[in-house]
Give the backbone structure.
Amino acid sequence: MIKPLRRLLFLLLLCTGLAHAAPIYLGIDVLEQSGFRAIAGKRVGLLTHPAGINRRGESSIDVLRRASNARLVALFGPEHGIYGDEKANVPVDDKIDPRTGLPVYSLYGQYRKPTPKMLAGLDALVIDLQDVGVRSYTYVSCMRYTMEACFENGIEVIILDRPNPLGGLKVDGPPLDREWRSYVGAFHVPYVHGLTIAELARIAKHSPGWMETPNATREQGKLSIVPMQGWSRNMLWTQTGLRWVPTSPYIPDLSAVLGYAMTGLGAQEGGFSHGIGTPYPFRLLRYTGKSPAAIKAALEAKNIPGLSYRIVETQSAAGAPVTGVYVSVIDWARVRPTELSFHMMQLAAAWSSNNPFAASKNPTLFNKHVGSTQWWNEIKQRGAQARVNAFVNQWAQQAQNFQNEAKRFWLYD
């Protein structure tokens, strides 16, 4: 009876978002409660997006604008812009925000890194971005580039911390090889890294080789953290009592956050689709030429711990009927989130007339996401015979080693 009860409890947590007994105060809440002490007397810029809200749902832009002892003078927007209405992979232009009259500098347009002109006149740049706990998500890359620019121009960086929605204990997946560091993956962490955005910033600030900035400049740069109150590492987002705001168009809810970690890499190459354009982004698997029943049977044969599969009929955004295999989590404690993606790659190689990875037209983008040259050589050369389990086990040990080293940068129990 114990295992079914554990599974039922986990499903209840995921589906209903039970509130934590004690309230969670985000970095922006703690800053406001302190009387805006960290920014008092300063002219500040703010790097944020729609998920940059306080626990009451107010935009961090509005919260900082009402600080009587500081002055918000500029906004900075990451991918998708400060209002989240820009498409993925589409450059965003600078503009004047019609709501506040403030200049908005795009860090996903002509520049990915703030220029000296953008930073001119600032005493500090506040960063309030909601991450999803997965390495290949550009908000943490935007943070790193912004930190570099600020350190190089003598501007203080202030991070307002937020929860990792996957919790702070789960680490999984391949680490990032140095040669694949890019805007897609800016940190040398496991694919699921188990850190908050402020903890990532602390590692980058205090670890040689994590930033492009010369060591002396990095060491002299000023980084201030406004941590959360009430959050602990064992909490998934559903246990925080906080409202989820879509961080990007394809991550509308917590189901997609978890799905992104599980299937995001598996559809980079090979022919799988993972539900984009349906009500189940990153959760609904399809493969051209294979029936949902065949996909379900193949996945069940892999015996991946903690997952189950069911066939779901739904519609695309355009109203077309769609049938696929929905991936369910039945035991979070046993799940290694990225494991499914690598089995998807192996199946894609088995189901194709030619190994799609050997014939890939864009291996660079694939490797920037996955981050492992060793795995690329394995799937390219062995295809359907790729030793998925050996790699997954190796990565699990490497991820645990990383976490043990990263604990000195933790801000929370």
In short: Confidence is low (pLDDT under 50) at residues 1-20. The domain at 254-407 is CATH 3.90.1150.140 (Aspartate Aminotransferase, domain 1). The first strand starts at residue 43 and ends at 48. The radius of gyration is 21 Å.
